[in-house]
Amino acid sequence: MTPAVAGTVHHELTVRLDPAAKSITVSDRLTLRESVTPDGDGAYRFVLHAGLDPVVSSEGWRLERVEGAVEVEFLGINATTATMSESVPLEAYRLLPAEGAGDPVELNYGGVIHHPLRRQGEEYQRSFSETPGIIDERGVFLSGTSFWVPTFGEQMVDFDLQVHELVPPWGVVSQGTRTLEGASDGGDSIIRWRLDVPTEEIYLVAGPWHEYGRTAGDVEILALLRSEEPALAQRYLDATARYLKLYEGMLSPFPYGSFALVENFWETGYGMPGFTLLGPQVIRFPWILTSSYPHELLHNWWGNSVYVDFPTGNWCEGLTAYMADHLFAEQRSEGATYRRSTLKKFTDMVSGGEDFPLSEFGSRHSAASE
């Protein structure tokens, strides 16, 4: 077991997915007592996606469901209007230790998570469909907004994730480092990801992919495509290596052990810690390699390594645009044109009633908010 990082909740997750049934089964060994402040009676409160029916199997611990409506807002750099937690049914629980109860405490739960894709406002020129969480025969997308792991307030987490029994070509992507992809002695297929540094949420993304990879310095770089396209994969691997060299020269070393380009089964443009999730059309636009792609890679520093303090405003989008979109325009001697175009777009899209300070910006959900 990976030891917990001080100040974080450590999750040791064993997962089985059933895409046809839209369901998940989870065993979670939690190390939390040194990082979560209990209630006055010693209970540890958490929330979980409704219908997963958790039970505690560790001696000395008791689990109680908290009655009543649960209202929790999750904020992450990929959480926008359509993925806010009010669209996810939640249940709250209290873990109560008796004398002698120790860490870790094991919870077992499972059920259906399937929220249909929902489109953002049609007037938004970069509008994508979104979901707070979906398990489907086309693929799996689970994140912090899915509440698929017990969530203890705004506590940071680290984790060891093992996914069993997925049949190739299905694979799994999460944060950190993939430490195993193969079979156990019993023939059970296992894919394992581990993250030893604190993060805001745990992603579990799965799908049928063709995998291409190489290394760039100390970083494993991957391209996971839903069809066999070695030339396309090579373009992305070359671009990843090029941008890693650029940004590591300007910032700190890349903060994760790997970076993957992952093709989603619907149109998205997400930047996660250690991977980006792009839609099937987006991924094949030639201009993406010199625009959105370096932008999403750069989010590994701004937003997914140096985190946003959302009550003071989401400044990471501006920093990322400045060090990607604006930087490349400057390299083409088009910096002034880029700035003029940005100001013109602001003038065209933002009326007096739609303007607001950066301290109130959380995410883009319309042309005006962008």
Write up what this structure looks like:
Helices cover 16% and strands 34% of the residues. With 370 residues, it is α+β, with helices and mostly antiparallel strands. The strands form five sheets. A seven-stranded mixed beta sheet has the order 4-7-2-1-12-15-14, with no helix packed on it. Strands 17-18-19-21-20 form a five-stranded mixed beta sheet, covered by helices on one side. Strands 10-11-16-13 form a four-stranded antiparallel beta sheet, with no helix packed on it. Strand 1 (9-18) and strand 2 (23-31) form a beta hairpin. Helix 2 (292-298) packs across helix 3 (316-331). The chain is globular.
Order of strands across the widest beta sheet? 4-7-2-1-12-15-14
Q: Uncertain runs with pLDDT below 50, 5 residues or more?
A: 81-86
The tally of helices reads: 4
The whole-number mean of residue pLDDT values reads 88
N- to C-terminal separation?
43 Å
Task: Determine the fraction of residues in helical runs and give it as a percent range.
Answer: 10-25%
Percent range for β-strand residues: 25-35%
Structural class: alpha+beta
SSE sequence, one letter per element: EEEEEEEEEEEEEEEEEEHEEEHHH
**What's the story with the biggest beta sheet?**
7 strands, mixed
**Gross morphology:** globular
Number of E-state strands: 21
* Rg over C-alpha atoms, rounded to the nearest angstrom: 21 Å
Oligomer: single chain
